[in-house]
Amino acid sequence: MKTKIAVNAASGKMGQQVISQATSHSQVELTAAFCRSDHRLLGRQVGFNNIEYTSDIEQGLNQSDVVIDFSLPEGTMELVKQTAKTKTPLIIGTTGFSDEQISELKDAAKNFPVLLAPNTSIGVNSTLALLSLAAKMLGKQADIEIIEAHHKHKIDAPSGTAIRMGQAIAEAMGENFNDLKTTDSRFEKRTRKKGEIGMSVIRAGEIIGEHKVLFALDNEIISIEHKAQNRHCFAEGAVEAAVWLAQQPAGFYTMQDFLANR
Ligand SMILES: NC(=O)c1ccc[n+]([C@@H]2O[C@H](COP(=O)([O-])OP(=O)(O)OC[C@H]3O[C@@H](n4cnc5c(N)ncnc54)[C@H](OP(=O)(O)O)[C@@H]3O)[C@@H](O)[C@H]2O)c1
């Protein structure tokens, strides 16, 4: 049987990619595409599909097995109020949540499945495993710098992916990322502190998403890098994870749970 997928923030760049991926996937049926009630797409047909863009989220969720969200934190928190009623499994690709919002999402996940993924690409999630290995081998000696670049429209910084990479590195070293990260050392007129994880951010043009991690030793540098060539890689991972999440019990999941158990 096909997995019935609803797409939140369907008007967005990622929303459109997810629609395209869902409609070309043999095991998936696109059952709802949500946009805001004042959006010009409202009531228009979604591509060549037999559905229209709608702002009736509750009805759309009732027709769907799972919903995929790439919006802004406020949009996600609104959606969660609805999925809490319908108990619809929820894939969250949105980034930029506060710690309080993440606690709320974890609370909500006690009653229905929620998968939070600051990056849904299979490639980035494989890169996390490589970073853990490098951190275990080199983390204590190396200066570690995470450099990320995105398009000029992106609001949150550093990216959710860069933060997740930092967390994976810190966890592998038995440390807490919040104790090691620094974003402003260049502006503090000081030399680099031993053990800190530097975060460098570029916002320019239409860069889709690039992450590079340097493990710099005194005489050599190891660099691990991921470059998204287009947004398709994020949509592909999100739809595959949605097919999986639709079958899971209530709980809070990550892409690692999906990749390890699919
Ligand atoms: N996890 C990943 O792998 C991954 C990959 C790429 C991007 N992202 C993240 O995904 C999010 C969206 O990225 P994007 O490039 O698609 O951005 P975008 O093109 O600006 O689209 C944002 C979408 O969110 C909607 N939205 C904004 N605020 C909302 C609210 N309060 N309620 C309901 N809908 C709201 C917008 O609706 P309107 O059209 O009505 O404004 C639009 O549909 C960002 O957080 C980005 O960092 C994650």
Automatic annotation (TrEMBL):
Gene Ontology molecular function: 4-hydroxy-tetrahydrodipicolinate reductase; NAD binding; NADP binding; oxidoreductase activity, acting on CH or CH2 groups, NAD or NADP as acceptor
UniProt xrefs under Pfam families: DapB_C, DapB_N
Active-site residues, as the UniProt record annotates them: H150 (proton donor/acceptor), K154 (proton donor)
Subcellular location: Cytoplasm
Main location: cytoplasm
GO cellular component: cytosol
Alphabetic keyword roster: Amino-acid biosynthesis, Cytoplasm, Diaminopimelate biosynthesis, Lysine biosynthesis, NAD, NADP, Oxidoreductase
Chain positions recorded as (S)-2,3,4,5-tetrahydrodipicolinate binding sites: H151, G160, T161
Catalytic activity: (S)-2,3,4,5-tetrahydrodipicolinate + NADP(+) + H2O = (2S,4S)-4-hydroxy-2,3,4,5-tetrahydrodipicolinate + NADPH + H(+); (S)-2,3,4,5-tetrahydrodipicolinate + NAD(+) + H2O = (2S,4S)-4-hydroxy-2,3,4,5-tetrahydrodipicolinate + NADH + H(+)
Gene3D superfamilies: Dihydrodipicolinate Reductase, domain 2, NAD(P)-binding Rossmann-like Domain
GO biological process, one term: diaminopimelate biosynthetic process
Residue ranges of domain Dihydrodipicolinate reductase N-terminal in the record: 4-119
Pathway: Amino-acid biosynthesis; L-lysine biosynthesis via DAP pathway; (S)-tetrahydrodipicolinate from L-aspartate: step 4/4
Known EC number: 1.17.1.8
Residues the entry annotates as binding NADP(+): R36
Chain sites annotated for binding NAD(+): G93, T94, T95, A117, P118, N119, T120
First-tier enzyme category under EC: oxidoreductase
Dihydrodipicolinate reductase C-terminal domain residues: 123-259
HAMAP family the UniProt entry points to: DapB (MF_00102)
Chain's role: Catalyzes the conversion of 4-hydroxy-tetrahydrodipicolinate (HTPA) to tetrahydrodipicolinate.
Family: Belongs to the DapB family.
Assembly notes: Homotetramer.
Protein name, per record: 4-hydroxy-tetrahydrodipicolinate reductase
Organism this protein belongs to: Aliikangiella coralliicola
Lineage, uppermost ranks: Bacteria, Pseudomonadati, Pseudomonadota, Gammaproteobacteria, Oceanospirillales
